Amino acid sequence: MTHASTLARTSVAEPGAQGRVHVSRVAPMATALGLFLAVRLLGVATLALVARATTGRDALGLLGRSWDSVWYLEIAAHGYGRIQHPRTGAVFSDTAFFPLYPALVRAVNAVSPLGGGASGLLVSWTAAAVAACGIYAVGARLHGRAVAIALVVLWALLPHSVVLSMGYTEPVLTAFAAWSLYAVLAGRWLWAGSLAALAGLARPNGCAVAAAVLAAAVCEVWRRRGRVSHRLWTGAALAPAGWTAYVLWVGHREGNLLDGYFAVQRHWGSRFDFGHGSLRFVRHLLLQGDRFVFPMTMVIVAAGVLLFALLLADRAPLPLLVHSGVLLLIALGGSGFFESKPRFLLPAFPLLLPLARALVRTARARPWHATVVVGALAGLSFVYGAYLVVIAHMPL
């Protein structure tokens, strides 16, 4: 009788219990998203104050139309075909910029009264929020809700996190990367491959997401001795499709199918030279010094290498290691635009997992110490972000 009564109570209470479980899962993600939005709003407010005090310029104008944002807005408005010939004689083609972000800006512009810059910011801010939710989902699946929230907050407080509030492509790439990695961890191969394909259309280093999916797929095939579902094979085939399709399209357009896109990048001064150019520039910094942005870049990239070593020591899942490792390899091994390397690492959010776990441990043992750490990171992020956009006058 007791057993039957227990079953009856369970049956009656089940819908409510499911609702409570659903709320208990959504509420922490909402908390993480709220903290992310609060942090970025404070960052934008700081930038607005600095811009008004030093230049009198409008913060939204700076965020929506700075450096690469202008190229993306031109592509969104007029399509590809713009070639710039600076006084140096170099040829800069807009086909160096991947198509997903300008396509999204164009779509928003077509269905709303917003102008190009405002449409770009709406796309970027929405993508940043989706990325924050995806980062939370990955962190919660691996280490629980507290670490996941800390992971999102740390990502929002990176020195270059001002880019997440600009009309740039990193928020879009990170959104697709985070949810693709979550899908891999959950064994949802079709979602993983499809999202990786979209990530590959967002940025050149979007290939890191495809590499993560393919590495995880190969590992699963090996573990199961080839006895895997068609979903895995399909997801693995989809993963590199976006990046490969655009590179080949540019190659066809340039008259050199396999090397055309990379020739365009070489005209921009960007090439993969196994770090030779980066080492040469670091030597210049150490011996002769340079503007503040450059040594700060060196410190951030060095910190990325250290965090990757900690991620390896923590035995993080293979797709997270491959994703972060490829992004780090591209940042270290690429020449040109040395000051942009920290921006290239923004999608490598798994690098922050060791710090997030340490922050949670500190918060539980010494809450005041954790508060001081977060406050210091916020001060650095807000002030340095305003410096980069308003004062530095250097490409991000």
Description:
The chain is mostly helical and 396 residues long. It has helices at residues 2-54, 59-64, 68-78, 100-111, 116-143, 145-156, 170-185, 189-200, 207-223, 230-238, 241-254, 260-267, 276-288, 293-313, 318-333, 341-344, 353-365, 367-391; strands at 83-84, 92-93, 271-272, 334-335. The strands form two sheets. Strands 1-2 form a two-stranded antiparallel sheet. A two-stranded antiparallel sheet has the order 3-4. Strand 1 and strand 2 form a beta hairpin. Helix 1 crosses helix 18 (367-391) and helix 14 runs antiparallel to helix 15. The protein is globular, with a radius of gyration of 22 Å.
Task: Work out the helicity level.
Answer: over 70%
Shape: globular
| Strand residues, percent | under 5%
The largest sheet is: 2 strands, antiparallel
Number of helices: 18
